[in-house]
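Late entry, zinc ion complex.
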Amino acid sequence: MKEFLNHLSVLQLIDNELATLSFKNQEIPKKIEGMKLALKSVKDDLELGKHNLQELKKKYKFSELEQKAIEDKINQYSVQLYQAKTNEQYKAFLKEIEGQKLAKNKVEDQMLENLEQAELAEKKIELLTKELTEVESETQSKITDLEKDEKDIKAAIKNREVERKRSVENLNKDILIIYERIKKGKGGLAVAEVKGEKCSGCQNPIPPQIIIEIQKAERLYFCEYCGRILIYPHE
Ligand SMILES: [Zn+2]
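Prediction complete; structure with ligand written out below:
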């Protein structure tokens, strides 16, 4: 029985490693996906910034046309001003010119604001372009590393599976069934050790008399609290 228990303990170690490896293996595609999303978010920001700048430029061009139209009107009224035949006409043209000048100021204020915004947009694009280059190369190198890790992990899993098969062959079928059943019900851990007079699986105390029995390893002992198979660790 002692030998079976040793094999059981080895099997548990292999299964622990397999669980860790398989968890890591599942995490890698998620990590890669997360990095791709972060990269896409920088790309999207950059695209948005470029679009924004284009819109600002369009608006500026439109304002230039408005400015030109107003200047034409002012020139037109200025000519008419000197051709005014009455005082009323003269005053009316003056008023028109004043109105157009106000409109021109408004458009020019807008153009200034627009230029400032465009300048900010250009700076943002510059920063994002730099960031994108950095994030792209960083992401690529990290993905390459992760893909290598994935390969290594898959190879390690294969190795452990071979070891597991060998380990299972050493075990009695009934013990294996018990092991698998407890493992399934106890989050992957079926074999616990006696550690400091406690079960390493659930930390509950084990009576000293039972510890002596477990040490003798003449049969299977189960933790009376968590139901795991208890073994006495090697010195
Ligand atoms: Zn326990």
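Residues 20-169 form a domain with the Helix Hairpins fold (CATH 1.10.287.1490). Will revisit in the morning.
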